[in-house]
């Protein structure tokens, strides 16, 4: 024992000398970075597939890290409002929307009728008979995408609204819900700075908050959900104009809706601070005005961030049938406003 103790100072001196030859950043990282878990190591080893045959991965919602700081709350409110309305007479709902949304997100198409309409059922504790139409990943075009970052961190690049809705559904009891996603890239071999440089270069991160102010990657929220992500009301406005004033083209650019939002917020006639978003008529009029501005653009006309109207899917004319469907009694807008009002009563 005395012989071992006598060697400790020499061992400490040797370690100190070794650290002296490490680059400062590497020495600092080695000193503070905790050991990688088995899960992190497995994620870092994930092999990406191709567009035709994507690699799919099962993750928990609380493993997902946002690549944008804000969402359109009213888009999430529409879903949560519809879920709540259906729950009141769930036995009469053949295909509950929340289970249909989960099936779709997992690339399984729709929920099978009559398999999920059970009172009190949650996404994490579904009815025993719950089934989707297809196997996981059968419809990859419907699935959301992630990038594997340094230390196996899973960054969500598409699906912030869908997964935030699932996160906040059922009274917020779904944070550990397991979902399936597509892995578009594995950049886990990069250092932190190089990773964010790559993400910017490939347009896989949106670094503007809900007030259109620039942020740094370090200011991105650490989790999805309404409590973590900020609200961008213009992003909600764009959601409601979909299929009325624009339709995302095939191979659409990442963050397409934010380019439209950036353009709309610069129009004085669409100052949302002056619109009563609890008034269905006022909100509907604003949506129509935004859609009219979209369809008035020429295909080659610039919109935002170097994107043209054609790049962002501007339609040539208003789809009035889609507008009527949006604003009807059981339309998306009504559910969103009713849910927003319910929050004021809490």
Automatic annotation (TrEMBL):
Keyword field: Signal
Database matches in SUPFAM superfamilies: ParB/Sulfiredoxin
Alphabetized Gene3D superfamilies for the sequence: Conserved hypothetical protein from pyrococcus furiosus pfu- 392566-001, ParB domain (3.90.1530.10), DNA helicase RuvA subunit, C-terminal domain (1.10.8.10)
InterPro entries: ParB/Sulfiredoxin_sf, ParBc_2
Protein's UniProt keywords contain Transport: no
Signal peptide: 1-27
Pfam families: ParBc_2 (PF08857)
Name this polypeptide is given: ParB/Srx family N-terminal domain-containing protein
Organism this protein belongs to: Janthinobacterium kumbetense
Higher taxonomy: Bacteria, Pseudomonadati, Pseudomonadota, Betaproteobacteria, Burkholderiales
